[in-house]
């Protein structure tokens, strides 16, 4: 024991100690008070705040994307469906040796090096219990191979996803369009909440136009997750509402027939029911397989399609703009009758060319006609008669009358990519070229050449108007949709358009009868090629539109010209002539003569529709 | 009946007295430990294996408690300097031969057991300071304060550089508490306090990066929600969403779904608060308060300076444990690795704590029954 110098005062020390202990007791109580106050703040005052945070922590909202609506033709044939696409997925946490697994898998299914590399990259970004796709779109053979060997690959699974499929392939590519992965532009446009979980969107055609109906309504499920994000259970579920099943007015049989008829050419055939505007067939050739686009087309295939000489991606039926040529003549004739510049009886002599007063330039006809009236001028396609008629009508009256048939504006069909063609007028030329309208331009406009451009659909619509004596309906592809569980068809109403009215109804007959003569009179331009043996009466008009300008004195010699300089062959027509049920427009690019090439095609389409299908 | 009651002690009490145990303290500790098991069962995800391991530790710790309770405290007093010197020596050894664990060098592998000398210092430092003051007249003079300060600072510094800020804090706290209880004069205390405030920037300068980050995270946990702030944010969500009545045992989503990190060790308080709510938490704090106060009463009733100082220091150190841990979990204090005493999974601090309670019981039960 150390020697004590100052004395300890035990009593005083004890009192001092007691005082210090009391101070500590007070402090301890005080600090516990602070802790309690803080807990009260967290658990009482901020309870709802933290309760929400805790709820958000554990509950995750997952989107249930709706199945896309199906598309049928008018007879219920499936045009677009959702098919299971099988893909190989790997769950990393269940795989013991990834390298060995991949190596053995490669012996069973075809695995590209690039694909494996991508898979490895994706692997890094995922949690170990999340499946990573290894190969998309397994073939049936690969599927079977894997199924047999499945036991050898723990952690590797075949996952079925739904993918859009177009069983008709290239036949309807231009009509239906296709779906593809949502891109950045679309992402900015769409309501991302409605598209939660959806990967594909309509890109073109019906798929694009009716996107909002086909898509359906997204569903949701609330799932409980843990801190790693693993789903533990479903708490609440609101199923998705599938998209509408659409029924088109198209008839796949007619579509396929028309396609075969046009095979080998570039061109378009559009057929519709003139009574209600239902499009029965809409063919644009050549075409492409829309299924290529669903899973993401490879760059090289796309490049090949894009640069192909005949432009298979181009929808000629709606986007192709062609000079209508002589197919315009019945309408110009009607304009002449209506404005009193000609009559059915009036005749004139055609020397094979036409000259304007005070002008030496000769406007050539395609042949010598002699004396012609309106009937012969349409049936035998006299240019001179229509030069004269055009001259007397003038561009203003002609342009405005043609406009009433919908030329120069979109028909408003329910699809994408439709173009408006071009209806020239004095104002248009002033606005576009800042030039006056020249009288000579009126003449060539009257025979459907010059600036004039029409789409095949516009010509079909124009033909329908002739067939229906002025009544007009907006052409449309959608016939209705399937309603409820019963699968009943709810029809859409056709939309009537402002009719073309003429002061005397017989004017219609005075241009419609010559159109019958095109096919059924000996010298009609389509008589020998299409009309002479028809089982029903057809009204039509041939057209040959120049691609290549000939000089005044030059002769057109088909054999000497390169194919791409050949004229476009056109034909418009409806049948049966006295009770029209189908109106058709045919355009064959560089087909040559409308009478020889286009008219027989239209006849075959009509035959198929009126004789084979309806029987 | 009335007259015999005082003389006739019940057999249970007799056993406790023979074993040198203090019933209130033992009751408080046992309740806390039992509650700890209940919460650990939930926090561990109903892991019976963990529960069993903790059970073994508790049994071991109880053994240490019993052992120390049997040792009369005047023996402890005589051993104090040697215990202290050995502790410092071991800390130096750790510095050179220690094993790394979780980024800090704390462990000494003695073949059979792995030993953490810093833990040992939680007892050795207050023992040494109490020994130093025991025979000196109190309140201490300045020279003695300096000596006592060095006695505290040397091991605290050695521990802080491991780095183990939490233990350094508790070790120096235990030592400083003895100095406070010894009756350090207020003006000296205030002067030292002012000095500490002035030295704070210097301390900041010497802090490790991770320690600075923890302080910054405390001030603004949202600044790093997935990194250092994640613990505090998730812990606050757990506690706050518990509300007044709690989500119920085994039903705390924050802990059961593993959003709460370190849920069976340092953050077990948040699990408890989530599942048992404010009411449960207040009951727990009351239990802790009871144990602390019982310890302080034992200190007041102790018969010599050494016992008084040591008992007082150990009791309040126990409080510091509770306060630092809960303060961290509720976002009042920075994240320092201090477990919740008698609750958190793990054995090291449990043994030290129970040893301290053993010393308290020894102090209480080895009083010489003198006539007042």
TrEMBL record, chain A:
<keyword id="KW-0645">Protease</keyword>
<comment type="function">
    <text>Catalyzes cross-linking of the peptidoglycan cell wall.</text>
</comment>
<dbReference type="GO" id="GO:0008658">
    <property type="term" value="F:penicillin binding"/>
</dbReference>
<dbReference type="Pfam" id="PF00905">
    <property type="entry name" value="Transpeptidase"/>
</dbReference>
<protein>
    <recommendedName>
        <fullName>Peptidoglycan D,D-transpeptidase MrdA</fullName>
        <ecNumber>3.4.16.4</ecNumber>
    </recommendedName>
</protein>
<comment type="similarity">
    <text>Belongs to the transpeptidase family. MrdA subfamily.</text>
</comment>
<keyword id="KW-1003">Cell membrane</keyword>
<keyword id="KW-0961">Cell wall biogenesis/degradation</keyword>
<dbReference type="GO" id="GO:0071972">
    <property type="term" value="F:peptidoglycan L,D-transpeptidase activity"/>
</dbReference>
<dbReference type="InterPro" id="IPR050515">
    <property type="entry name" value="Beta-lactam/transpept"/>
</dbReference>
<dbReference type="InterPro" id="IPR017790">
    <property type="entry name" value="Penicillin-binding_protein_2"/>
</dbReference>
<dbReference type="InterPro" id="IPR001460">
    <property type="entry name" value="PCN-bd_Tpept"/>
</dbReference>
<dbReference type="GO" id="GO:0005886">
    <property type="term" value="C:plasma membrane"/>
</dbReference>
<dbReference type="InterPro" id="IPR036138">
    <property type="entry name" value="PBP_dimer_sf"/>
</dbReference>
<keyword id="KW-0573">Peptidoglycan synthesis</keyword>
<feature type="domain" description="Penicillin-binding protein dimerisation">
    <location>
        <begin position="64"/>
        <end position="234"/>
    </location>
</feature>
<keyword id="KW-1133">Transmembrane helix</keyword>
<keyword id="KW-0997">Cell inner membrane</keyword>
<dbReference type="GO" id="GO:0009252">
    <property type="term" value="P:peptidoglycan biosynthetic process"/>
</dbReference>
<keyword id="KW-0812">Transmembrane</keyword>
<dbReference type="GO" id="GO:0008360">
    <property type="term" value="P:regulation of cell shape"/>
</dbReference>
<dbReference type="GO" id="GO:0071555">
    <property type="term" value="P:cell wall organization"/>
</dbReference>
From TrEMBL, chain B:
<protein>
    <recommendedName>
        <fullName>Peptidoglycan glycosyltransferase MrdB</fullName>
        <ecNumber>2.4.99.28</ecNumber>
    </recommendedName>
</protein>
<keyword id="KW-0472">Membrane</keyword>
<feature type="transmembrane region" description="Helical">
    <location>
        <begin position="55"/>
        <end position="73"/>
    </location>
</feature>
<keyword id="KW-0812">Transmembrane</keyword>
<keyword id="KW-0573">Peptidoglycan synthesis</keyword>
<dbReference type="GO" id="GO:0005886">
    <property type="term" value="C:plasma membrane"/>
</dbReference>
<feature type="transmembrane region" description="Helical">
    <location>
        <begin position="276"/>
        <end position="297"/>
    </location>
</feature>
<feature type="transmembrane region" description="Helical">
    <location>
        <begin position="189"/>
        <end position="207"/>
    </location>
</feature>
<dbReference type="InterPro" id="IPR001182">
    <property type="entry name" value="FtsW/RodA"/>
</dbReference>
<feature type="transmembrane region" description="Helical">
    <location>
        <begin position="165"/>
        <end position="182"/>
    </location>
</feature>
<dbReference type="GO" id="GO:0071555">
    <property type="term" value="P:cell wall organization"/>
</dbReference>
<dbReference type="GO" id="GO:0008360">
    <property type="term" value="P:regulation of cell shape"/>
</dbReference>
<dbReference type="Pfam" id="PF01098">
    <property type="entry name" value="FTSW_RODA_SPOVE"/>
</dbReference>
<feature type="transmembrane region" description="Helical">
    <location>
        <begin position="342"/>
        <end position="363"/>
    </location>
</feature>
<keyword id="KW-0808">Transferase</keyword>
<keyword id="KW-1133">Transmembrane helix</keyword>
<feature type="transmembrane region" description="Helical">
    <location>
        <begin position="142"/>
        <end position="159"/>
    </location>
</feature>
<keyword id="KW-0961">Cell wall biogenesis/degradation</keyword>
<comment type="similarity">
    <text>Belongs to the SEDS family. MrdB/RodA subfamily.</text>
</comment>
<dbReference type="GO" id="GO:0032153">
    <property type="term" value="C:cell division site"/>
</dbReference>
<keyword id="KW-1003">Cell membrane</keyword>
<dbReference type="GO" id="GO:0008955">
    <property type="term" value="F:peptidoglycan glycosyltransferase activity"/>
</dbReference>
């Amino acid at each position: 024991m150390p020697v004590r110098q100052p004395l300890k005062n035990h009593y005083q020390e004890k009192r001092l100690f007691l005082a210090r202990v009391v101070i500590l007791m007070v402090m301890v109580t005080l600090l516990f008070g602070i802790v309690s106050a803080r807990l009260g703040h967290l658990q009482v005052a901020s309870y709802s705040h933290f309760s929400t945070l805790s709820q958000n922590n554990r509950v995750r909202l997952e989107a249930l994307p709706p199945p896309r609506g199906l598309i049928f033709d008018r007879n219920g044939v499936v045009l677009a469906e959702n098919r299971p696409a099988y893909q190989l997925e790997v769950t990393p946490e269940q795989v013991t040796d990834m390298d060995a697994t991949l190596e053995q898998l490669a012996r069973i299914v075809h695995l590209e090096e690039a694909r494996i590399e991508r898979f490895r990259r994706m692997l890094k970004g995922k949690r170990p219990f999340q499946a990573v796709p290894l190969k998309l779109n397994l073939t049936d053979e690969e599927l079977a191979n894997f199924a047999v060997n499945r036991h050898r690959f723990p952690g590797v699974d075949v996952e079925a996803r739904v993918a859009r499929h177009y069983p008709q392939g290239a036949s309807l590519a231009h009509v239906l369009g296709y779906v593809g992965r949502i891109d950045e532009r679309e992402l900015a446009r769409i309501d991302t909440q409605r598209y939660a979980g959806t990967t594909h969107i309509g890109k073109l055609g019906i798929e694009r136009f009716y996107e909002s109906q086909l898509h359906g309504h997204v569903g949701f499920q609330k799932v409980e997750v843990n801190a790693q994000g693993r789903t533990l259970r479903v708490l609440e579920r609101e199923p998705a509402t599938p998209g509408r099943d659409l029924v088109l007015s198209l008839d796949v049989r007619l579509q396929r027939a028309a396609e075969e008829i046009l095979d080998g050419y570039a061109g378009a055939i559009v057929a519709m029911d003139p009574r209600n505007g239902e499009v029965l067939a809409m063919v644009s050739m050549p075409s492409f397989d829309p299924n290529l686009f669903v899973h993401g087309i490879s760059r090289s295939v796309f490049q090949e399609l894009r640069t192909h000489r005949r432009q298979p991606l181009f929808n000629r039926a709606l986007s192709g703009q062609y000079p209508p040529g002589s197919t315009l003549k019945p309408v110009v004739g009607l304009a002449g009758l209506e404005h009193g510049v000609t009559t059915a009886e009036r005749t004139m002599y055609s020397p094979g060319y036409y000259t304007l007063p005070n002008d030496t330039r000769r406007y050539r006809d395609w042949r010598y006609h002699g004396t012609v009236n309106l009937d012969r001028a349409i049936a035998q396609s006299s240019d001179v008669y229509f030069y004269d008629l055009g001259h007397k009508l003038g561009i203003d009256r002609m342009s405005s009358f043609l406009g009433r048939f919908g030329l120069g504006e979109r028909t408003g069909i329910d699809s994408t990519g439709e173009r408006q063609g071009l209806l020239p007028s004095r104002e248009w030329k002033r606005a576009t070229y800042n030039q006056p309208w020249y009288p000579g331009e009126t003449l060539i406009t009257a025979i459907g050449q010059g600036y004039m451009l029409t789409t095949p659909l516009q010509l079909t619509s124009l033909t329908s108007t002739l067939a229906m004596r002025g009544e007009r309906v907006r052409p449309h592809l959608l016939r209705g949709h399937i309603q409820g569980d019963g699968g009943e068809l709810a029809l859409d109403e056709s939309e009537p358009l402002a009719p073309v009215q003429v002061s005397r109804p017989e004017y219609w007959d005075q241009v419609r009868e010559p159109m019958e003569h095109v096919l059924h009179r000996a010298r009609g331009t389509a008589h020998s090629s299409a009309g002479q043996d028809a089982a029903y009466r057809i009204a039509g008009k041939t057209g040959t539109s120049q691609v290549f300008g000939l000089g005044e004195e030059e002769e057109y010699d088909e054999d000497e010209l390169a194919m791409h300089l050949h004229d476009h062959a056109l034909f418009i027509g409806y049948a049966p002539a006295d009770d029209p049920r189908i109106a058709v427009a045919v355009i064959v690019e560089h087909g040559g003569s409308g009478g020889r090439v286009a008219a027989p095609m239209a006849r075959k389409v009509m035959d198929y529709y009126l004789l084979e299908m309806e029987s | 009946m009335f007259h015999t009651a005082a003389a006739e002690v019940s057999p249970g009490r007799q056993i406790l007295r023979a074993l040198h145990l203090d019933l209130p303290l033992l009751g408080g500790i046992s309740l806390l430990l039992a509650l700890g098991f209940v919460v650990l069962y939930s926090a561990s995800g109903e892991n019976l294996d963990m529960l069993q391991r903790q059970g073994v530790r508790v049994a071991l710790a109880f053994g240490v408690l019993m052992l120390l309770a049997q040792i009369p405290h005047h023996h402890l007093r005589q051993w104090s300097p040697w215990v202290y010197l050995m502790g410092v020596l071991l800390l130096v050894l750790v510095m050179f031969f220690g094993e790394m664990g979780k980024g800090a060098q704390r462990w000494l592998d003695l073949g059979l057991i792995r030993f953490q000398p810093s833990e040992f210092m939680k007892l050795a430092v207050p023992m040494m300071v109490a020994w130093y003051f025991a025979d000196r007249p109190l309140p201490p003079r300045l020279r003695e304060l300096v000596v006592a300060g060095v006695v505290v600072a040397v091991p605290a510094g050695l521990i802080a550089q491991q780095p183990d800020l939490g233990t350094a804090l508790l070790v120096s706290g235990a030592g400083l508490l003895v100095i406070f209880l010894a009756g350090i004069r207020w003006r000296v205390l205030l002067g030292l306090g002012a000095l500490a405030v002035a030295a704070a920037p210097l301390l900041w300068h010497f802090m490790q990066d991770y320690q600075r980050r923890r302080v910054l995270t405390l001030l603004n946990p949202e600044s790093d929600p997935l990194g250092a702030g994640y613990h505090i944010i998730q812990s606050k969500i757990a506690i706050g969403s518990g509300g007044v009545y709690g989500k119920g045992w085994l039903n705390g989503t924050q802990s059961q779904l593993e959003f709460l990190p370190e849920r069976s060790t340092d953050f077990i308080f948040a699990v408890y608060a989530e599942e048992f709510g404010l009411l449960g938490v207040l009951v727990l704090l009351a239990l802790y308060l009871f144990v602390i106060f019982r310890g302080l009463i034992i200190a007041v009733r102790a018969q010599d300076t050494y016992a008084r100082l040591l008992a007082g220091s150990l009791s309040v150190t126990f409080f510091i444990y509770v306060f630092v841990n809960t303060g961290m979990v509720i976002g009042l204090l920075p994240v320092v690795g201090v477990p919740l005493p008698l609750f958190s999974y793990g054995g090291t601090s449990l043994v030290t704590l129970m040893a301290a309670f053993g010393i308290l019981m020894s102090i209480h039960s080895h009083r010489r029954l003198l006539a007042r």
